[in-house]
Design brief:
Shape: elongated
Largest sheet: none
Radius of gyration: 19 Å
Number of strands: 0
Helix content: over 70%
Structural class: mainly alpha
Number of helices: 4
């Protein structure tokens, strides 16, 4: 049972890594604010749907990873 939970834990780790790599970077950050990046509202929100979905799945996998790790920790402490 512990091995199956450990494999699920590792799969969650790999899933989070893959999802983070698929997300686009925020290149505009502070440097865009300082230099006066003039993006319109409509241009700024183009293609953000994919990023929102990836962010949501990353958060869900992150919570699942924390719960799974706590369960594994509790199992191995009891032994």
């Amino acid at each position: 049972m512990e091995i199956a939970l450990a494999i699920i834990d590792i799969a969650l780790c790999v899933g989070i890594i893959v999802l983070v790599l698929f997300q686009s970077s925020n290149e505009g950050g502070l440097s865009g604010t300082i230099t006066g990046n003039t993006e319109t509202f409509l241009g700024k929100n183009k293609g953000k749907r994919k990023d929102r979905v990836l962010t949501k799945f990353t958060m869900i996998l992150g919570i699942a990873l924390v719960v799974m790790t706590l369960i594994l920790n509790a199992i191995f402490i009891v032994k």
